[in-house]
Amino acid sequence: MSLKSTVRVYNILLLGTTGTGKSTLVNSIANYFTYETLEEALEANEPICVIPSSFDLTLANFKKIIITQYGINRADVGNENHSGASSCTQKPRVYSFYNDEVGFNVIDIPGIGDTRGMMQDATNKKIISDKIKEFTEIHGIFILFKASEPRLTPEIKYNLNETLMLLHASAVPNIMFVITNARGQDYGPGPAMNTLKEYVGDLYEKKKILIELNENTIFCVDNEAYKFQCGWNKSEEYRNEMKDLKGNYIKSWDFSRKVIFKLFEKMYTLSGHNVQLTSSVGQARTVIHCAIGPLATITGYIQRALTPASRQANIETLMNSGNQIKNEVEIEKTLPRTVCTSEKCIEAIKIPGTKRYNFNFKTVCHDKCYLRNVALAKFPEPALEDCQAFDIDGNCTHCGCRVERHMHLSQKQTQKQVLNKVAQKPLTKEEAEKFMDKFVKAQVKEQAAIINAIVKLSIYLKQNAILEYNNAFEERIMLEIRKEQAALSEGVEDSADVITKLQNTLKHYKDQMKAINVSIANGNASKVTEEEVQEVMTLLFTLPHNGANIRKMYEAESLDCKATPDMKNANPKEVFACCVKYLP
Fold this sequence. Notes:
The protein has 3 domains: about 10-50 and about 90-270 and about 570-580, Rossmann fold, CATH 3.40.50; about 275-320 and about 425-545, no CATH class; about 325-420, no CATH class. The strands form 5 sheets. The chain has a 7-stranded mixed beta sheet, sandwiched between helices. Helix 6 (about 225-235) packs across helix 8 (about 245-265). About 40% of the residues lie in helices and about 20% in strands. The protein is built from 15 helices and 16 strands. The protein has helices spanning about 20-30, 40-45, 120-130, 155-165, 190-205, 225-235, 235-240, 245-265, 275-305, 310-320, 430-465, 470-490, 495-520, 530-540, 545-560, and strands at about 10-15, 55-60, 65-70, 95-100, 100-110, 135-140, 140-145, 175-180, 220, 275, 325-340, 345-350, 355-360, 365, 405-420, 575-580. It is of the alpha/beta class. The protein starts with 7 loop residues before the first strand and ends in a 5-residue tail after the last strand.
């Protein structure tokens, strides 16, 4: 059943980390909208369950009762995984609560921090991005948070960052925090308040983005009354034992229902957030994040190609055979592993028959590392603190280096040298030198194009995103420098020249970004559009000398984020309509 065209419709995006109780909240909302009091709900003895749910209730004699509710559509039970260690919601669903005058579409999506791991998180973010596109406006963005979160751990910070990174900066006024499990904190936010204050304070300090934390943005609820309601319905033994405690659950119901109505009433006062903006920034972020590593690696290749030793080797090859030495990237998929990027943990391996080297992270500090919530090929990466390779002080028990110097990888990149035919016969010395002069100029031009691209992509995120990955390109260039330092220690003389060139490139980039940041702060920076982001990527992929390698590495980096089908066209099986009696 679909909503009548005359009904006012409000769309709400339900976000939150795995385990915060999104599905239970939706079921509770369905009952708050159907029954005015818990007494009425218990008398009807028909709990409204829109999402399949299963949970245990424990009696006084420690006997466990398993409560199972199938939801509106019994065939959809497979979308909720109720095993103890698994994430619940598997695919997005839209729960439409409506009457003759108003409708609320609650968009329930898989949580960030999925117990199936980081690869699934990347997939979930793609699912969220695709699902959002089905709507023109989002009126409310409800971020769920457990009241018992005592501190801002790396995992919580990661989950909040990844959640906010899905959103355009203009969505801030539509953000509400829903604090769950509030009964144990006297129906207040509990320790979660300090955790949120620390997080949003840090966000304002670094990004000047203000998310207010007050009675208009924080809503504390408890959903135990729903579980009590289900137990009452399913088990006579539970009813007999719990009837004297009914008053506690009536209090929980009354408090939470009042808060939920206040939360939904808030939607009437908010302007809808333009979904196209959030979709665009999400797509651009994926593009940019996947491009950082390849562009830094290619920068290293270019700087080595500009050394006198490389020039001379090419001149000799051109004079001998009319061929030019060309580098091609090879990528091998591996199991996830934690490696160290410190200079002492990198080795330079000579490519047979050449004067070139491949670089290998020789210290694998944790092989087959399936730690969840860790970004690939990114460092410093706070979530790595939970990897078993590190002690309580953040030192690696395998190599002794700090956690900040480590990263998580699922691929191995090497370069091989091939001969590229540029002339049908050997060139004279003069011809070879002219050819290389032209080649060097082209490489310098392409390096400038890469730096300009990184700057433009960074500007786009600074102008449009709530959060972006800071200093990612700088860190990756520093990694290229450490690789060359490792080669220098192996006796590769021209590595000193490469290091100098990389340092100069980094300084040039930082100077540009410093000027851009001042310009943005003063409101003088030109607006970068999503169309320009696509144009930048097209330009990078078509660079004559380095475009093919950039594309190959970029596609390998982005592969993990392309695991879901396109869902632009709403699937009727994903929309569940629920006609209710009471709405704000």
